[in-house]
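Protein details
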Amino acid sequence: MVLIIIFRLVNKKILNSVLIFFMLIIWAIVFNKIFNFFGNNIEEDSMSVNPITIVDPRMNFSKDTFNLRKIERDPFLGKYMTSRAKKRKTNTKLVPRPKKTNSAPKNNIKKPWPKLSYHGFVKGVKSTSELILIRMNNKFYKIREGEMLEDISVKKIYRDSIIIKRSKENKTVLKSK
């Protein structure tokens, strides 16, 4: 409403010339900002250039080492833990069991094989033997070739199967899918 009153009071030619003058001032300010941003400043030319020295990080390399302490208390239960870890056999050869002499007559009844499934193996880069995953009676076990699990020993490991032995009887177990 104010512009309408000003427009009627002032001549169109005068109003146009005033608006063009303000538009030129605004564009001059915009171009000045653009040229100062991208242009070379006199202050930068007069400053001395200091070379950047690159420090090789391998020169001051020091290893950060620390020792881990064994946790004796369970942080979740608050109880002190007991060691359940069994020592791993270092000898992969089977040690023959001493024969027991029983005065009772032997029954030729064969025990049924437990429910077994073979789930695969892993062989490390530095390791010479494979570590296999077997499920026996709904429990998972990790054992190596030549080791015994209850009364079953692992004779040979293949990618798709294993050969196991129990009391002079061999059995091949295929890999589960």
About this structure: Residues 1-32 form one domain.
